[in-house]
Structures are given as C-alpha cells and as structure tokens.
C-alpha cells in the first residue's frame, strides 16, 4: 500500500507541474475534478486489485463502474484528496488508500507528496510516519488545542449551526485551521500536529485511512452523535484525549 500510494503521489507532482486550468471539470457546484484525479484512480485500482483481488472498491471518481457492497471487504480510495488545492497550485493534497471490512477500517495509508510524508496504520499494529511510530497529542484540554476543520462545498442547510460551533471554539482553543484535505487533517491529528479534526458532509474515501491512523495512534474517533457510524454517514470528530470535550461543544449546537 505504501509503495502504491507513493507512486501515485509522484504522478500527482509530475502532472501538477504542467497542469492547466482548462482541464477542470465540474461534478457539481464547487465540486471539481480533473483528468489527474481519474487517471490516478485508475492506476490505484489496477495495482490494488492485483494486491488483493477479493476486495471490492469504493472510489471517489467511480472509475471501476461497479456498485460496492458496503458490508464487504473494500478498498476505499481518494486518488487526490484536496483537488481544489491542487488546481489552484496550493501544496496541500494527498493520496488516501483505506481497506475496510464493512464499516471498520483495517489498514490505511495517506501520502503527502509535497512533504514526502507517508502515514500508515493497520488494525492493532500502531500508526507510523515514514516508518517511525507516531501518537496523538498528549493534550487533554480544549484550551490547549489547535483544531482542524473543513467547510462544506454542497448541502449548505446546516451552515448556521456550523458557524455557531466555529464561534464557540474560537475563544476556547489555540485556533482553527482549514487545510483543504481531510486526509491530511486526520494524519496530522494522528501525529500530534492537530489535537482534533471535525467535519460533516464527508465521504468514506475522505476518512477511511485517516480514522484508522488516529485510532492506532491512540486517539478517539466518533460521529457527531458520539457513535461509530462516521464512515458512511459523513460526520466525524477525531482527536486526542480532549475529543470528548470537543464533542460536547459540537453537540450543543448540532442537531
């Protein structure tokens, strides 16, 4: 998985150097895609199928043309998490490869080609960055936390509640950051750079690898209700020991 992800990342950097805005396509309002996303996904599918033929696929760009069984063993992949950043020349994007049995991630790799950092984890085996073991931040208080989040690019009906959460967290934390790649956000929680990450309107491919990284690094991952339906429901809160306090703040405003 590491080799496949790093090869895909090298392809992203190669294409970024010659990418033209004319190659942008729109899947929906503010939902951008390019030939780079699609070609990278095709490469990943071919190699992952060779590695584990019995697994199905849940992919962002749908290049397999197949409907996945969400209860089965699946590769869950985002070939280019942070497409908007990539298109605008911002060096914050990643390759995310997760392997899940039903709703339970069991292996995951996130590769950030711009920093040449490869995060990996497997169930019960710990979490690593470039081969060195990582762990979540030791912070247990919201007041000691730097938090990552994301802004939705569709389904804006819950923006009032979302903005209330932002307003509540700003004076209670070291700050909030919006990186533009949920996979990198989760990887940074796993290695202690962020104390927590939360977002809604996500897809399984945005978080399959990252939530396992956080858990294997000693963190806590739930949905906004405090349960474990995050992978296919789309709302997630992942963090260090202060995660329950963050969950409480979010639940105050989120209904």
TrEMBL record:
Protein source organism: Spirosoma agri
Catalytic reaction annotation: a myo-inositol phosphate + H2O = myo-inositol + phosphate
Cofactor or coenzyme needed: Mg(2+)
Top-level EC class as recorded in UniProt: hydrolase
CDD domains noted in UniProt: IMPase (cd01639)
EC code(s) of this entry: 3.1.3.25
Entries under Pfam families matching the protein: Inositol_P
Keyword annotations: Hydrolase, Magnesium, Metal-binding
Keyword Metal-binding: yes
Annotated residues for binding of Mg(2+): 60, 78, 80-81, 206
A single MF term (Gene Ontology): inositol monophosphate 1-phosphatase activity
Coiled-coil segments: none
Protein name in UniProt: Inositol-1-monophosphatase
InterPro entries per the UniProt record, alphabetical: IMPase, Inositol_monoP_metal-BS, Inositol_monophosphatase-like, Inositol_monophosphatase_CS, Inositol_monophosphatase_SuhB
Superkingdom assignment: Bacteria
UniProt entry tagged with the keyword Magnesium: yes
Family to which this protein belongs: Belongs to the inositol monophosphatase superfamily.
Gene Ontology biological process: inositol metabolic process; phosphatidylinositol phosphate biosynthetic process; signal transduction
């Amino acid at each position: 998985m590491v080799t496949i992800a790093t090869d895909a990342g090298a392809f992203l950097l190669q294409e970024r150097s010659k990418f033209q805005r004319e190659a942008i396509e729109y899947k929906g309002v503010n939902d951008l895609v390019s030939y780079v996303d699609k070609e990278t996904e095709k490469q990943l599918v071919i190699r992952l199928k060779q590695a584990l033929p019995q697994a199905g696929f849940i992919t962002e760009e749908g290049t397999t043309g197949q409907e996945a069984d969400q209860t089965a063993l699946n590769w869950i992949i985002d070939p280019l998490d942070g497409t908007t950043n990539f298109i605008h020349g911002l060096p914050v994007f990643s390759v995310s490869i997760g392997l899940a049995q039903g709703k339970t991630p069991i292996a995951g790799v996130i590769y950030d080609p711009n920093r040449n950092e490869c995060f990996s984890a497997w169930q019960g085996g710990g979490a690593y960055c470039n081969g060195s073991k990582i762990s979540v931040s030791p912070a247990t208080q919201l007041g000691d936390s730097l938090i990552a989040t994301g802004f939705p690019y569709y389904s804006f009906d819950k923006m009032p509640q979302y903005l209330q959460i932002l307003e509540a967290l700003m004076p209670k934390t070291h700050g909030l950051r919006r990186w533009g790649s949920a996979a990198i956000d989760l990887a940074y929680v796993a290695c202690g750079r962020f104390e927590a990450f939360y977002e809604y309107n996500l897809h399984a491919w945005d978080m399959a690898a990252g939530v396992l990284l956080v858990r294997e690094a000693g963190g806590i991952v739930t949905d906004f209700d405090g349960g474990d339906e995050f992978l296919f429901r789309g709302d997630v809160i992942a963090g260090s020991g202060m995660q329950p306090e963050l969950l409480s703040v979010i639940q105050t405003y989120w209904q």
